[in-house]
């Protein structure tokens, strides 16, 4: 019977051994990087001719020069197209941003309303839109100037944003009005939330020229129903706001 030799125990691979084991791979990688780095424009052009299936005998200096010019122009046009696309995205974002308030404008709010309406219908989630109106901003403007009115609206925008959840959306409806999209909130919850925000707004104040100025507000709301669109939601909330303001004026 043949004698089976006892195998030697497998020793642990020391760090130095690991380093040595990795060395060929690293050298190969370095060699590859070096090869890539040493590619010359002539090599690149030769690759282009191969891809374009141009016979080597037809690659005259004139053809080579012409194709090089074409590729350079192509690269330039590609860069210009990339820049144009970036600029379009910037302009689109700018078109939905208020001129001085840190909020989206009515156009952006309209787009967000359309998006939330579609999501709510698919998921069966109840959402509510609240329209806030700053009632005394005109009197502030007449007494303290246009800059004071802008400061008051900016302070109101900051307060509204701070009072809302990350899932809610705040925007300017233009003039002295703000729009809030309260997600996953029915009419009762939205009314409680809006009343609390109005209470905090009217209980606070913002500094102006050594004084503290306060705001007076009113709000109306509309809970989304099937068949709603962005315009109908805004319109119904605005009608509710006008009704609330008439009650305030009458009381």
Sheet having the most strands: 4 strands, antiparallel
How many angstroms separate the termini? Answer: 113 Å
Radius of gyration of CA atoms, rounded to a whole number: 34 Å
CATH superfamily of the largest domain: Reverse transcriptase/Diguanylate cyclase domain
Order of helices and strands: HHHHEHHEEHEEEH
What is the overall shape? elongated
Question: How would the blueprint of this fold be written?
Answer:
Elements lengths: L14 H23 L3 H11 L9 H35 L10 H18 L4 E7 L2 H8 L1 H18 L5 E6 L2 E6 L4 H17 L2 E3 L2 E3 L3 E7 L6 H21 L1
Antiparallel strand pairs: 1-3, 1-6, 2-3, 4-5
Which characteristics define this entry?
8 helices; Alpha-Beta Plaits; two-stranded antiparallel ribbon; four-stranded antiparallel beta sheet; 251 residues; alpha+beta; disordered N terminus; 60% helix
Describe the structure.
By secondary structure, the protein is α+β, with helices and mostly antiparallel strands. It has two domains: 39-95, no CATH class; 106-250, Reverse transcriptase/Diguanylate cyclase domain (Alpha-Beta Plaits), CATH 3.30.70.270. Helix content is 60%, strand content 13%. The chain has eight helices and six strands, in the order H-H-H-H-E-H-H-E-E-H-E-E-E-H. Strand 2 and strand 3 (177-182) form a beta hairpin. The longest helix is centred in the first third of the chain and has 35 residues, at 61-95. The protein starts with 14 loop residues before the first helix and ends with a helix. Mean pLDDT is 83; it is low at 1-38.
């Amino acid at each position: 019977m043949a004698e089976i030799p006892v195998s030697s125990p497998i020793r642990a691979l020391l760090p130095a051994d690991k380093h040595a084991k990795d060395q060929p791979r690293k050298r190969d990688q370095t060699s590859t990087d070096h090869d890539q780095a040493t590619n010359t424009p002539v090599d690149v052009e030769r690759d282009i001719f191969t891809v374009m299936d141009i016979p080597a005998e037809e690659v005259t200096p004139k053809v080579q020069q012409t194709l090089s010019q074409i590729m350079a122009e192509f690269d330039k046009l590609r860069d210009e197209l990339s820049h144009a696309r970036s600029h379009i995205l910037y302009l689109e974002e700018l078109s939905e941003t208020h001129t001085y308030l840190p909020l989206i404008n009515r156009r952006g709010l309209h787009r967000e309303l359309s998006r939330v309406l579609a999501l709510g219908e698919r998921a069966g989630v109840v959402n509510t839109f609240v329209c806030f109106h700053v009632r005394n901003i005109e009197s502030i403007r007449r007494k303290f100037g246009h800059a004071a009115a802008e400061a008051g609206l900016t302070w109101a925008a900051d307060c509204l944003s701070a009072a809302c959840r990350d899932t809610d959306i705040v925007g300017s409806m233009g003039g002295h009005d703000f729009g809030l999209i309260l997600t996953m909130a029915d009419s009762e919850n939205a009314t409680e939330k809006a009343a609390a925000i109005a209470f905090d707004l009217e209980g606070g104040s913002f500094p102006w020229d050594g004084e503290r100025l306060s705001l007076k507000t009113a709000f109306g709301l509309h809970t989304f129903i099937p068949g709603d669109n962005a315009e109908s939601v805004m319109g119904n909330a605005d009608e509710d706001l006008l009704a609330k303001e008439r009650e305030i004026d009458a009381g």
